[in-house]
Structure prediction request, 167 residues.
Amino acid sequence: MSRLRAGEWTAAAGAAGLLAALFLPWFGIEFPGAGGNLVDTGLVEESGTSGWSTLGWVTIALVLAAIGCAAWLAVGTAVARPVAQLVAAGVLTATAGTLALFALTLRTLLFQPGPNEFVAMRYGAWLGLLAALVLAVGGWLAIKDERTGAPESAYTPPEPRPAPPAA
Prediction:
């Protein structure tokens, strides 16, 4: 675990938060009641429905891909996988995390399930968006962090070659 840097920890925390947020209520329906007040009835259950049932299969696939990439990045770094695998995991985490954040933002803020004037976002949607942002930022931080100050990263340039003899 001491091998994990800030980027890997951030991506792993975002992945865990996003996976947990999928089980929370994301949307609910609010109908106008007497006197203009809104009466909260929920989409299916009293507290709303989870992200699994309301986000759509494409968004769920993107979210699960981002979670999987972040898990690969964190576990691969912890067990000291080859550098090429860790770079690939970092690039895929940053890319999939950004795509998942974009898809979740569109799904929650613009393309809500049902008629938009009656749909209300629940706390799960806000936590999911925050976790997706954390996951994407963690992926980008993991790519950025290069440990150039580490002793094994020290580089001594070779001696310059002598000039060719004059003809």
Observations:
- The chain is about 55% helix and 10% strand.
- The longest strand covers residues 25-32.
- Residues 39-47 have pLDDT under 50 and may be disordered.
